């Protein structure tokens, strides 16, 4: 089928105007797609459907959806993968969804390797008081133990620390400016930047490197990078853009391991919550060390640290989803998914009964309120949620 014919059928599907013959042609075309092609079509289809919402004849689409499901139920062609048959049904159902905002696809992988696709609808009227996620919140801890809640201060100087002036700039970022060279060189003290649950922050380090901290994360770094290295400590998750300095390697210590670079872009996730620490490289090269083991990773690779150092290829867009405003799930079980959600919305998570062990794949904007996010997960049919105050209970 030529592309112009596919486009014509797609437009008729959106308008609810497919004839019986056209329905058959449309699904014959879908049957020959592989999974990536089908996923891409689903995403394009949902975006087009959203734009056409006001003119959709809902009753016609409901009737169409029923006819399509009946047609699919009658299909006994087992050469069609289960994930694809499920996708067809969900696409039919999608034809009757009235979407007020963005659509989200959530994919989940069954233990047997099959795939299903769920198209979620937006939740515009939360039943409980809406809980929204974090913002730029940060705590600066000076070497003398003084704690400064940066958000409570207007722009300007916050402190003078070991020959450096620490200022809050108009963009909210901290800036270190050397004002006393002798005091700075003599300093061996460190500062700590800490984001709470529901917070995130970007900081410029004294050497010019930039660090973005995810929620419930902290870094400790010297006010002056003296000696032959630039060493800091991380707990949580952070993305680094390291200022190039071939004479002073930049070293990040985390969970008994470290990453050594000269100047590069990389992400480290090390919350110490039972999940294996991961280092992902976006640009340059890094050396990952754990005990006497050492590995070099390249852009697009991720080092997973357990007893050994495993190297896998990853989608860096997924890894950086948190920094770019999304929850990104890549074959992650509900415990990992809820870890990300609980840190962002500052909620406690409880489990009731035996919850699913399926792996989730997909993306949801972090700008959505908590109930909207949980509702989208519920649309997979795998679990249910109950919100009470700042506590979330997960049930089968």
Automatic annotation (TrEMBL):
<keyword id="KW-0812">Transmembrane</keyword>
<feature type="domain" description="FecR protein">
    <location>
        <begin position="192"/>
        <end position="287"/>
    </location>
</feature>
<dbReference type="InterPro" id="IPR012373">
    <property type="entry name" value="Ferrdict_sens_TM"/>
</dbReference>
<keyword id="KW-1133">Transmembrane helix</keyword>
<dbReference type="GO" id="GO:0016989">
    <property type="term" value="F:sigma factor antagonist activity"/>
</dbReference>
<dbReference type="InterPro" id="IPR006860">
    <property type="entry name" value="FecR"/>
</dbReference>
<dbReference type="InterPro" id="IPR032508">
    <property type="entry name" value="FecR_C"/>
</dbReference>
<keyword id="KW-0472">Membrane</keyword>
<protein>
    <submittedName>
        <fullName>FecR family protein</fullName>
    </submittedName>
</protein>
<dbReference type="Pfam" id="PF04773">
    <property type="entry name" value="FecR"/>
</dbReference>
<feature type="transmembrane region" description="Helical">
    <location>
        <begin position="87"/>
        <end position="109"/>
    </location>
</feature>
<dbReference type="Pfam" id="PF16344">
    <property type="entry name" value="FecR_C"/>
</dbReference>
<feature type="domain" description="Protein FecR C-terminal">
    <location>
        <begin position="327"/>
        <end position="394"/>
    </location>
</feature>
